[in-house]
């Protein structure tokens, strides 16, 4: 039997139900893995709350690391005993699970399971944002919201390694200090001052080349005000609510701006793309360009507490659930 966390109805953290389920043998193309560390991500809360529709009941979670216990017919990607991780595949809140072997990524020597579970989804998000959505060039200036969060800490460090000037926002002195410790050139405490006027001041009135915004509704229009003419707003999350643009003319009035809403599913639908991103990510971790923060852990039984902390923005860096 395997302990799993099931969402039987849409709602708040209280709907997360810890249950025991029998995990069968892997079918063709599948592997069974025993999970050792599970990553907590905002997408988990979006699915639980119904913001991202899911068919209930479902096992929550989208990222984990573990060891291959068994493989089904035709599996060539992994073998029994391999240390692996994955992201973007629902069903991660579990001690054991079945998963398509093509979705598994080998964990390199020198990277422990907790680090792999902490970094893969957030790190691959940073990869496509920085290398694919807007390929950041040396000398460009970017703005990254929520820089003290899991994705923010990874993305801002990586952007600095690419030679960008990084302006960031964070909420409160402790998070501001954490973002600075991870290399951001300027960090704005959005609780103490308006970030858009400050960004204009820091850029001599020009604005930034690109804004990476995982906060959503609360920061959207202010993010537009931070961009140079023909700059790009990359809206990749909804932590404060869903963004809508009732008047596209707004983009024209603010400088012929561009807006995009990317997701990892469209960047990593093919295994070759997934492995490309993972190689780049783990290479950046190995080189020291990215230092992974994953100090807060919760037992899987306390998953509801972990969700409440994440949604209240009480966490910094990556949060790990331990089966």
TrEMBL record:
The keyword NADP applies. This is Quinone oxidoreductase. GO terms for cellular component: cytosol. It comes from the Bacteria. The keyword rRNA-binding does not apply. InterPro entries: ADH-like_C, ADH-like_N, ER, GroES-like_sf, NAD(P)-bd_dom_sf, QOR-like, Quin_OxRdtase/zeta-crystal_CS. Keywords: NADP, Oxidoreductase. Residues 11-321 form the Enoyl reductase (ER) domain. One of its GO terms (molecular function) is zinc ion binding.
